[in-house]
From TrEMBL:
Keywords: Adaptive immunity, Disulfide bond, Glycoprotein, Immunity, Immunoglobulin domain, Membrane, MHC II, Signal, Transmembrane, Transmembrane helix. One of its GO terms (biological process) is adaptive immune response. Belongs to the MHC class II family. InterPro entries: Ig-like_dom (IPR007110), Ig-like_dom_sf (IPR036179), Ig-like_fold (IPR013783), Ig/MHC_CS (IPR003006), Ig_C1-set (IPR003597), MHC/Immunoglobulin (IPR050160), MHC_I/II-like_Ag-recog (IPR011162), MHC_II_a/b_N (IPR014745). Its main location: membrane. The chain crosses the membrane at residues 211-237. The lineage of its organism: Eukaryota, Metazoa, Chordata, Craniata, Vertebrata. This is Ig-like domain-containing protein.
Length: 241
């Protein structure tokens, strides 16, 4: 069992709420460590709001077309208060338990995949999902054909797994082009060297290519067959004369 360096203040799970679409489940997690803090609101396993302590603001993760509730007003200020309480509790817990063992677990799994079926020249998104690491967070770097890519990249806040480890997901918006090679590079304090996962864009032949050939061949075959039957009938009639 993992000894958590993070102290969790609020864990509200399995709280049902009813909407026009049916039953939903919300949960809220607030936690801290010596160097980091987290305050997240989750709806049906999706983060809908989180506190960005670096930029000192709350971030609404709901898409633009969704309803944005006003009850989120004041949540960032409350998250700051939660962090102050959490760090005090962490200090007290260390004093009582003579500090926690420094446990580190490298990511157990790193996967890279696209959100949509790949079509050359059509906008798509690459996903790099990292899970099974402890403590949080990981650092994810994207590269295209060996060159570092920053534009179009994003990463989620660390989410806690049931076994006490964490998971994070990084995204890269891109337009597939045959021959391009993308790399997701993951760094973590428990790794002696980064983990790299590669995605290569394959050349895709136009749809008409493989279909048009057999169609033409079949058409020529039918035409030759018709001419053959016509020639046979002509010779048969001529022989009767």
């Amino acid at each position: 069992m993992k000894m958590k360096v993070w102290v969790l203040l609020l864990v509200l799970s399995s709280v049902p709420c009813v909407s026009a679409d049916g039953l939903h489940e919300t949960s809220s997690v607030s936690g801290c460590s010596d160097s980091d803090g987290e305050d997240v609101l989750i709806l049906d396993d999706e983060v809908v709001w989180y506190a960005d302590f670096y930029n000192q603001k709350g971030v609404d993760s709901l898409p633009a077309f969704a309803d944005h509730p006003h009850w989120k007003d004041g949540m960032y200020e409350q998250a700051v208060v939660n962090q102050q309480i959490c760090r005090y509790n962490l200090k007290m817990a260390r004093t009582a338990m003579k500090d926690f063992p420094k446990q580190r677990d490298a990511p157990s799994s790193v996967n890279i995949y696209t959100t949509l079926n790949v079509e050359i020249g059509v906008q798509n998104t690459l996903i790099c999902h990292v899970t099974g690491f402890y403590p949080a967070p990981v650092k994810v770097t994207w590269k295209k054909n060996i060159k570092k890519v920053v534009e179009g990249t994003s990463i989620t806040v660390p989410l806690s797994n049931k076994d006490g480890s964490f998971s994070q997901t990084s995204k890269l918006d891109f337009v597939p082009k045959g021959g391009d090679v993308y790399a997701c590079i993951v760094e973590h304090m428990a790794l002696t060297q980064p983990i790299t996962k590669v995605y290569a864009v394959e050349d895709v032949e136009p749809i008409l290519g493989p279909i048009l050939g057999p169609a033409i061949f079949c058409g020529v075959g039918v035409t030759v067959g018709v001419f053959g039957v016509a020639a046979g009938i002509f010779l048969f009639i001529r022989g009767k004369k």
